[in-house]
Amino acid sequence: MSAILQKIKTDADQALKNKDMNLRSFLNTLADAVRKVAQNDNKSYNRESTDSDAVKVLRANVLSCEDNIKLLESHNRAGDADKYKVELAIYQSYLPGEITEADIETTVVEIVGDQEKSIKLMGKVITALKLKYGAALNPATASTIVKRVLGVS
Description:
Layout: H1 3-17, H2 21-39, H3 51-74, H4 78-94, H5 101-112, H6 122-133, H7 139-150
Helix pairs in contact: 1-2, 2-3, 3-4, 5-7, 6-7
């Protein structure tokens, strides 16, 4: 079982002991979403959940919360946005710390080395970054940095 999923389940159990049913329900729903990603994987049906599955679900939920907060605040409904701010904080607490842009750029420069810089290297570099950093790598940030280093817009 994924370490992140295990932490979510442990925190849900603690919320039950603390009689915080809203948090328990929220965390159980989150854990179910992570499990469903693994169960619905076309490559290996009903496989064990991984940290990568958990990060995928957490990042999607973080983006959704951020969008909802922006939308509500732009319509002068900051009070309604508070619910999403709480959810956002919970999701972010389970995400592994992201690698700094400087670290990613240094690694990209090392991977590219003396090779001719072209878009053809993009896949190779992204794959190497994923292998090195795993779930801590934000793919969108990595893609932007790789394009910048390769001189591709």
